[in-house]
Amino acid sequence: xxxxxxxxxxxxxxxxxxxxxxxxxxxxxxxxxxxxxxxxxxxxxxxxxxxxxxxxxxxxxxxxxxxxxxxxxxxxxxxxxxxxxxxxxxxxxxxxxxxxxxxxxxxxxxxxxxxxxxxxxxx
Length: 123
Hints:
The chain has one helix at 8-22; strands at residues 25-36, 42-67, 70-82, 92-95, 98-106, 114-121. By secondary structure, it is mainly beta. It has a single domain, classed as Beta Barrel (Thrombin, subunit H). β5 (98-106) and β6 (114-121) form a beta hairpin. The chain starts with 7 loop residues before the first helix and ends with a strand.
């Protein structure tokens, strides 16, 4: 018997299966553009980078952190999307009406079937 590596076709089928069985939701990926405001500052405009992408959101934790003189709530989640999707740190994700900031992306090439991003709840 000979050991075989996965073929490109096998890997492609695994990615299709992953999307069909383990990415039950959809989300929107937003990216930011900045422009000078004419007074020395910048304005941000958020636009849709990907209108609807298969995903899974997994809550990781939450709590309250000290900000100035008040406690601010926070929530951390993991977003899983298809390997073919594009998401970068600094993007935002809209899922079920909530907005999250992408704080990190796992681009490890050994994670061949999907991409994972760490998110923090914005509003």
